[in-house]
Inverse folding.
């Protein structure tokens, strides 16, 4: 029996368009001689549909489309289609009104439903908000082969693998106790760095533990801040990898199941990206491309400062949508160095993108004149520095509004974490392409780009063969600077980025206490200062554009911190600090350093 996996890139809410993708995959599967087609989790609606599920008309359209799709499928093919379906018992039993389900469609109608049993509520997931968990693990029989069905999280509860059990039930163990021959999993599993290695290790152990082959079908594509990497795989009953689909691309993968051996046969194994930098690059390119396409933009605009962050974002945008659809805007001020303008133009020439130069010196003078009386007898400081950034942000938004371009914000994760960014200035934009990429990683990706600038997988079509360094060398070696005052560099206000990023990783991603971070070798004053900046900058992050998620802990959908908050972890917290005391006014020093 041949089985195909349709690694699809759905658009959330485009039920008709998603159905057309499924139908096209069904015809391709039949051409390859397949008897069964797997599609990802909620493949009909796109994942995650979020509060669209609260619209009865949306759910009803899904069901109507599923019925029409069932009649359109080619004869002789069974298809598993992901869709939300109503919970008929919800009114009587007080449960949620919907199930996250997969429909077995065959012979022109839905033959059977399978409901997702484990509903995640961590990080970006909020399944319990909408769905009732399924009550049993079920299988179906096709040509004498008994196939157990699981949906995404249902596979992520192996106590032996994780060292604990996160849910009271284990759907995989329950299925394995039944007389089945094969387990399939239909997933919408978002990307994070090195996640595929974790998935494959988990699936390998599951097959070895239960002696059952597993086929894993995952979604691909960008949906808002989430990126789905595909990487659908199959493992035989001994835990051997027998097939792997493409990374960050749609694909149709077909594998053979031998009923006599009750096992999957070796098929095509596509090699994944060969480095972390390559993996992140492909993820970000896909995320930008799909955000532009699915939101209906044709071109993008971004500020080119001559710095490394805007250089990386410009390269990503060029690879994602093509050089003729990217506009880089240079906005030099009296504080801008000659090399910044020169480096920005050199980058644009390497990429082959259009540029526009809009000097802001005159606008700065106009602001100075307007504020002259109000700011009299005060010293030049953050307010004046940030006006420069806000002038630039206004110019970029003007271009965006005038021509309908998507404005890409160029701030990195390190800056977003500690608030080294300006509201209504460099934070302006419709998408923050590298908001989950730490500064040190920005550098490593740019160095990787230079080492691979002639590799076609970068997506930089027809790159000039004379270009041996995509990112001009001066951008990589000069100290990072916002250039908002003479001689300014980032390290005037921040710890060195290698130190800052390590502290942020331990605090933000690994949830380590300040004392643990100090014990790992960091200066206590630096740790306290960084943590204070992270806490104080929450109000900025709440107003930032969506940022593409590539790590396990991103400042986005899964980051749910309060803005008005008095709790602050510190390296030296004595017991007396927790006692009741006379209320004191909050010192003005608590204000964020950069706004």
């Amino acid at each position: 029996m041949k089985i195909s996996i349709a690694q699809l890139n759905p658009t959330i809410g485009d039920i008709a368009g998603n159905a057309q993708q499924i139908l096209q995959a069904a015809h391709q599967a039949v051409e390859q001689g397949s008897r069964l087609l797997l599609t990802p989790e909620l493949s009909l609606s796109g994942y995650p549909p979020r509060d669209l599920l609260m619209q009865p008309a949306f759910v009803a359209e899904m069901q109507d489309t599923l019925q029409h799709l069932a009649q359109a499928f080619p004869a002789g093919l069974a298809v598993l289609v992901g869709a939300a379906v109503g919970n008929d018992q919800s009114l009587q039993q007080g449960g949620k009104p919907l199930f996250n389900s997969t429909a077995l469609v065959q012979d022109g109608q839905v033959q059977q439903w399978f409901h997702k049993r484990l509903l995640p509520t961590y990080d970006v997931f909020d399944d319990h908000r909408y769905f009732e968990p399924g009550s049993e693990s079920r299988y179906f029989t096709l040509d004498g082969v008994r196939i157990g069905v699981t949906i995404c999280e249902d596979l992520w509860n192996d106590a032996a693998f994780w060292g604990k059990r996160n849910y009271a039930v284990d759907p995989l163990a329950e299925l394995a106790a039944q007389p089945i021959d094969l387990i399939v999993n239909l997933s919408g599993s978002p990307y994070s760095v090195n996640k595929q290695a974790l998935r494959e290790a988990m699936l390998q152990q599951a097959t070895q533990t239960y002696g059952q082959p597993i086929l894993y079908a995952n979604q691909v594509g960008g949906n808002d801040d989430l990126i789905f990497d595909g990487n659908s795989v199959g493992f035989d009953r001994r835990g051997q990898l027998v097939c792997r689909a493409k990374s960050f691309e749609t694909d149709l993968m077909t594998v053979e199941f031998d009923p006599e051996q009750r096992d999957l046969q070796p098929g095509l194994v596509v090699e994944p990206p060969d480095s972390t930098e390559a993996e992140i690059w492909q993820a970000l390119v896909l995320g930008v491309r799909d955000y532009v396409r699915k939101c209906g933009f044709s071109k993008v605009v971004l500020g080119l400062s001559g710095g490394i962050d805007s250089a990386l974002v410009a390269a990503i945008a060029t690879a994602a949508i093509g050089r003729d659809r990217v506009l880089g805007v240079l906005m030099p001020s009296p504080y801008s160095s000659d090399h910044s303008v020169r480096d920005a133009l050199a980058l644009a020439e390497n990429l082959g993108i259009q540029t526009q130069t809009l000097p802001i010196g005159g606008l700065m003078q106009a602001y100075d004149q307007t504020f002259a009386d109000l700011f009299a007898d005060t010293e030049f400081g953050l307010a004046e520095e940030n006006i420069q950034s806000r002038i630039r942000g206004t110019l970029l938004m003007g271009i965006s509004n005038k021509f309908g371009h998507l404005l890409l914000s160029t701030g990195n994760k390190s800056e977003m974490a500690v608030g080294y960014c300006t509201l209504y200035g460099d934070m302006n934009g419709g998408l923050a392409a590298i908001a989950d990429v730490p500064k040190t990683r920005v550098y490593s990706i740019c160095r990787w780009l230079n080492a691979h600038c002639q590799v076609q997988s970068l997506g930089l079509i027809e790159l000039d063969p004379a270009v041996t360094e995509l990112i001009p060398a001066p951008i990589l070696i000069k100290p990072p600077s916002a250039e908002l005052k003479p001689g300014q560099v980032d390290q005037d206000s921040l710890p060195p980025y290698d130190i800052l990023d390590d502290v942020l990783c331990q605090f933000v991603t690994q949830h380590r206490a300040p004392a643990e971070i100090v014990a790992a070798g960091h200066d206590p004053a630096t740790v306290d200062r960084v943590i204070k900046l992270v806490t104080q900058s929450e109000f900025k992050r709440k107003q930032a554009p969506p940022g593409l998620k590539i790590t396990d802990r991103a400042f986005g959908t899964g980051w749910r911190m309060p803005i008005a908050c008095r709790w602050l972890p510190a390296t030296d917290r004595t017991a007396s600090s927790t006692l009741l005391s006379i209320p004191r006014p909050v010192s003005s020093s608590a204000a964020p350093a950069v706004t």
Remarks:
- The longest strand covers residues 78-86.
- Residues 382-403 form the longest helix (22 residues).
- The CA atoms of residues 213 and 376 lie 75 Å apart.
